[in-house]
UniProtKB/TrEMBL annotation:
<feature type="domain" description="RNase III">
    <location>
        <begin position="9"/>
        <end position="103"/>
    </location>
</feature>
<keyword id="KW-0378">Hydrolase</keyword>
<keyword id="KW-0540">Nuclease</keyword>
<protein>
    <submittedName>
        <fullName>Mini-ribonuclease 3</fullName>
    </submittedName>
</protein>
<keyword id="KW-0175">Coiled coil</keyword>
<dbReference type="InterPro" id="IPR000999">
    <property type="entry name" value="RNase_III_dom"/>
</dbReference>
<keyword id="KW-0255">Endonuclease</keyword>
<dbReference type="GO" id="GO:0004525">
    <property type="term" value="F:ribonuclease III activity"/>
</dbReference>
<dbReference type="InterPro" id="IPR008226">
    <property type="entry name" value="Mini3_fam"/>
</dbReference>
<dbReference type="Pfam" id="PF00636">
    <property type="entry name" value="Ribonuclease_3"/>
</dbReference>
<dbReference type="InterPro" id="IPR036389">
    <property type="entry name" value="RNase_III_sf"/>
</dbReference>
<feature type="coiled-coil region">
    <location>
        <begin position="45"/>
        <end position="72"/>
    </location>
</feature>
<dbReference type="GO" id="GO:0006396">
    <property type="term" value="P:RNA processing"/>
</dbReference>
Length: 120
């Protein structure tokens, strides 16, 4: 199995998550300002951290370990004021990126589960 650096999984997961959110928001409005506001509200660290918290009971041991390792990645200096939130969001992105590369079925299951928590 191809293995990437955790930072790369987080990078990929960030893009996958934003695309998922954008696909949902374009069905809501054609107004660019509204699209941007809705999207940024769903891709920010605090929202991702909250989602990870809701998913914790669903995670397998391997996924919990990936999240733990993701939370321990170094944090950019500019993000240190919200360190806890940023770490949780990074763990969320690591998982999304890992599922995207290794288990699309699991990714779809998780995204469907998350959709019940999204309020647009």
């Amino acid at each position: 199995m191809e293995e990437m650096n955790l930072k790369n999984y987080a990078y990929l997961g960030d893009a996958v998550w934003e695309l998922y959110i954008r696909e949902k928001t374009v069905k809501i409005t054609n107004n660019a300002q509204k699209l941007h506001k809705i999207t940024t509200g769903k891709v920010k660290a605090s929202f991702q951290a909250e989602l990870l918290h809701h998913l914790e009971e669903e995670l397998t041991e391997q996924e919990q370990e990936l999240a733990r390792r993701g939370r321990n990645l170094p944090i950019p200096v500019g993000r240190r004021q919200i360190q806890s939130e940023y770490r949780q969001a990074t763990a969320f992105e690591v998982l999304i990126g890992w599922w995207y590369k290794h288990n699309q079925e699991r990714l779809n299951f998780i995204l469907n589960k998350i959709e019940t928590h999204l309020v647009f």
